[in-house]
Amino acid sequence: MAQFNIFDFNKKLYLLLLLLLAMPSVLRAQFQKPKVPTPVEFMAGHERLFFQMVVKKEFAPESKFGFLSVATFTADYSNDLNEMDLVMPVLISYNFYKNFGLVAGTTINNKVGFAPLAGVQHEFANREWVAVSIASFFLNSSRSVELFGIYEYKPKINDSLGLYTRLQYMYIHGFAENLHARSFLQLRAGLKKEALSFGLGANLDQYGPEKVFKPNYGIFVGWAFQ
Question: Which domains does the chain have, with CATH numbers?
Answer without folding.
Answer: 35-225 (2.40.160)
